[in-house]
């Protein structure tokens, strides 16, 4: 098939019939190869199933070893490479160096240095905002929202409860 593919791809013939014949020969060879691959895949799967079936009846302990080999393979080895301070990849066979480098990198990543000025700045901003709001309330031109600051009476609560759908009340009191 490989030779037929090379002949077909390298063909510079002006004659379309020759090129078409080479293409058909290549396609036929490709179909034969595909059929053989499918045949051997089916044969391999069938042989594996028969082998597992026979092991199941003759050696039950080996059965699970065969089953475990069916799935994807697990790699338990850690990669023994890391970046050096220069930015190059180090493939040092000393796994201790690699583990120490990883430990340092993750420690820096997950435990960043805490900036103490952040807390002080945040606190100062919060205090100044609170003082600003209190000064606004003392201003004689300040108008509070009387609708929001009024008392909630029983009639309003009943009205809201009756509008709510059954079982849809917010909170744990389950009014409906």
UniProtKB/TrEMBL annotation:
Superkingdom field: Eukaryota
Name recorded for this polypeptide: Uncharacterized protein
């Amino acid at each position: 098939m490989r030779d037929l593919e090379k002949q077909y791809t390298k063909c510079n013939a002006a004659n379309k019939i020759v090129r078409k014949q080479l293409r058909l020969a290549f396609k036929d060879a490709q179909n034969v190869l595909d059929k053989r691959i499918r045949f051997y895949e089916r044969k391999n799967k069938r042989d594996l199933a028969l082998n597992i079936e026979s092991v199941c009846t003759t050696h039950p302990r080996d059965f699970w070893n065969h089953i475990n080999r069916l799935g994807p393979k697990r790699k338990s080895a850690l990669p023994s490479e890391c970046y050096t301070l220069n930015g190059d990849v180090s493939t040092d066979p000393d796994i201790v160096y690699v583990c120490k480098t990883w430990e340092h990198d993750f420690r820096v990543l997950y435990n960043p240095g805490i900036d103490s000025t952040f807390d002080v700045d945040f606190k100062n901003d919060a205090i100044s905002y609170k003082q600003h709001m209190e000064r606004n309330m003392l201003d004689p031109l300040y108008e509070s929202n009387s609708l929001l600051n009024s008392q909630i009476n029983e009639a309003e609560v009943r009205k809201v409860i009756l509008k709510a759908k059954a079982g849809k009340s917010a909170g744990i009191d389950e009014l409906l």
